[in-house]
Amino acid sequence: MTTDRKIAVMLFILALVYLILSYQLPEFPYAIMDSDVLPKGLGYLLLVLAIILFVESKTETEGQRKKRQLSKADRNMLLMVLVLVLLYVILLDTLGFVIVSILFLIGTTRLLGYTNWRVNILVSVLFTLGLYYAFNYLIKIYLPQGILPF
Fold it and tell me: Structure pTM?
């Protein structure tokens, strides 16, 4: 079995578990869109993409296999992004979506090499506030507010 097919099988299993868990989310009768719409949509999307990856994978040549090898710097970068994601998840309820998302976006883009602080901060703040407004006030899916009063 090729590496792509192994990854496809793992993603398929992950999508199934994710879908099972998303069907267990509680329903909110007064929301326009229930809180489980996005997780279910993402779960089905991952399921379809895993099937496509499995079907389209071909046998690898030795050159392609060597090309997949990550350098130590790339592995460290992935590890640092993983740490930032874990911190995001841990701090989301305590500090709230707005603060944690802004800090996450600024930290991640800086870590990945974008050095213009003004643009980085501006995009992080505007994107996060736009997303927060869209979820909380347009589709009535409430994101964790944390320590902020809104």
Answer: 0.66
